[in-house]
């Protein structure tokens, strides 16, 4: 740490935090006898806590966000210059960085054309849901209003987004939810629902979506919302053949396809800017948040095709010939200013290529842990977005307990490496360790991360 805060300052900070901050995702009872972790500084892919202890951050700010790493002076400068010029104006008007980032973003998304700015992933998804509902009113007498979502996917923390949430344990105690959200089966082949494999499995999992559409009535289904690679639900890679069939089904029944790229977007999966671009999918909506500005400023986007946009301006006689919606902080200019510079860094430093290369390397190393640790069920993922599913018995695939997963995460942290894990998401299936180091990770960083996991697995399971 650079010593800006003295130990004395920090003990006051810890006290203030313990007394007044309500942490996200956290049980607070233990803080009656222990201190919360406070992250004070970051540089590259390392962070320092209140004790000055260094950690490698193997999950980019714990939740797949700080894609270009900490301490980027050029992003700070871009934000600072923009804020002095104009910090905010409501999004009914345009802004210089808003226009320039939209242009740059759309240049990476062939087939898409409009960017609607918001300030969180949940909110971006809510915007898409509202657009779907309004399209149903405009075009289909209100009838085509159902939104399909998939088991194990997650789309945000608001009641609307949770209504599209496929993680039953996460949703417990927060219902009732909004009507007309309908779930379709997950596509995780490791926990197969059909006795098939490879492409046949992928097509069958997609056919299961068609079955739901037929059951509900195609004239009642407006959209299908999916993560390209499921994140918090267990890092689920779609099987081959899945996306092609999903696209076909959406076209067949005139169902809008909404891809939630909140985690995968802007480089996380390597080679392409977005997860869906690995699969040749042509979406109607793409939502994104976390990595858009790597957490240097809050920004999220709901991006649509021109076809969707046209539906909101093609009937002059309709007094609601527009999207009657606003996001106050969608008008903050720091977000697009930071996002523009974030994208420049990814391009100039070839981070899409690095992500693919380092992701392949890390996946191989994680899979190799299976030679030594019987508890490793499957290593999977794409780019620097990886998961390690742990099982107590490989033949039955009996999941390890969430407590054991927590012990591995704790042992890694004690070893100076912050990793993630599925938690209280899927009943009985919170058994996946999550890895998403910043896209700048080197082979040496990855060696250090996987070595810590190796030692932690020995500690917890040997
Ligand atoms: C796939 C996905 N969609 C949406 C969200 C919600 O984003 P936010 O927390 O910015 O509202 C998340 C958050 O983890 C996510 O993983």
Structural descriptors:
single chain, 462 residues, alpha/beta, Aspartate Aminotransferase, domain 1, Aspartate Aminotransferase, domain 2, 2 domains, seven-stranded mixed beta sheet, five-stranded antiparallel beta sheet, 14 helices, 16 strands, 38% helix, 15% strand, binds pyridoxal-5'-phosphate
Short overview:
This protein is of the alpha/beta class.
Descriptive notes:
The chain is an alpha/beta fold and 462 residues long. The chain folds into two domains: 37-68 and 350-461, Alpha-Beta Complex (Aspartate Aminotransferase, domain 1), CATH 3.90.1150.10; 74-348, Aspartate Aminotransferase, domain 2, CATH 3.40.640. The chain contains 14 helices and 16 strands. The strands form three sheets. The protein has a seven-stranded mixed β-sheet with strand order 4-10-9-8-7-5-6, with helices on both faces. Strands 11, 12, 13, 15 and 16 form a five-stranded antiparallel β-sheet that branches. Strands 1-2-3-14 form a four-stranded mixed β-sheet. The protein starts with 6 loop residues before the first helix and ends with a helix. 49% of the residues are buried. The protein binds pyridoxal-5'-phosphate. The site of pyridoxal-5'-phosphate has 16 residues, from α5.
């Amino acid at each position: 740490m650079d010593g800006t805060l003295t130990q004395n300052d920090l003990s006051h900070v810890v006290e203030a935090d313990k007394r007044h901050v309500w942490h996200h995702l956290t049980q607070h009872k233990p803080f009656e006898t222990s201190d919360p972790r406070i992250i004070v500084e970051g540089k590259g892919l390392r962070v320092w806590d209140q004790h000055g202890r260094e950690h490698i951050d193997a999950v980019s700010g714990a939740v797949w966000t700080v894609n270009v790493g900490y301490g980027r002076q050029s992003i700070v400068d871009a934000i600072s210059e923009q804020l002095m010029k104009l910090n905010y104006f409501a999004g009914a008007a345009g802004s210089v960085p808003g226009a320039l980032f939209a242009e740059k973003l759309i240049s990476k998304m062939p087939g898409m054309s409009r960017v609607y700015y918001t300030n969180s992933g949940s909110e971006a998804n809510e915007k898409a849901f509202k657009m779907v509902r309004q399209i149903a009113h405009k075009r289909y007498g209100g009838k085509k209003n159902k939104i399909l979502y998939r088991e194990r996917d997650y789309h945000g923390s608001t009641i609307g987004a949770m209504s599209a949430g496929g993680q039953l344990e996460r949703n417990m105690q927060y219902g009732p939810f909004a009507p007309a959200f309908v779930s379709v089966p997950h596509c995780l082949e490791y926990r197969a629902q059909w006795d098939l494999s490879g492409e046949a499995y992928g097509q069958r999992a997609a056919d299961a979506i068609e079955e739901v559409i037929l059951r509900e009535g195609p004239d009642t289904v407006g959209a299908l919302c999916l993560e390209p690679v499921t994140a918090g639900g267990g890092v689920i890679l779609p099987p081959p053949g899945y996306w092609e069939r999903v696209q076909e089904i959406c076209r067949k029944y005139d169902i809008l396809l909404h891809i939630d790229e909140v985690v995968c977007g802007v480089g996380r999966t390597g080679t392409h800017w977005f997860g869906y671009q690995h699969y040749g999918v042509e979406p109607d909506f793409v939502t994104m948040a976390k990595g858009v500005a790597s957490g240097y400023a809050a920004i999220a986007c709901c991006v649509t095709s021109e076809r969707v946009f046209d539906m909101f301006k093609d009937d002059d006689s309709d007094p609601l010939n527009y999207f009657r919606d606003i996001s106050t902080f969608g008008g903050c200019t720091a977000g697009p200013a930071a996002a523009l510079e974030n994208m420049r860094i990814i391009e100039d430093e070839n981070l899409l290529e690095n992500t693919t290369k380092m992701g392949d390397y890390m996946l191989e190393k994680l899979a190799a842990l299976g030679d030594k640790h019987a508890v490793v069920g499957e290593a999977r993922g794409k780019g620097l977005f990886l998961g390690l599913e742990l099982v107590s018995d490989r033949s039955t695939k009996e999941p390890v307990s969430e407590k054991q997963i927590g012990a591995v995460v704790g042992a890694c942290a004690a070893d100076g490496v912050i990793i993630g894990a599925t938690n209280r998401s899927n009943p009985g299936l919170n058994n996946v360790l999550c890895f998403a180091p910043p896209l700048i990770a080197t082979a040496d960083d990855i060696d250090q991360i996987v070595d810590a996991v190796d030692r932690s697995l020995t500690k917890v399971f040997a």
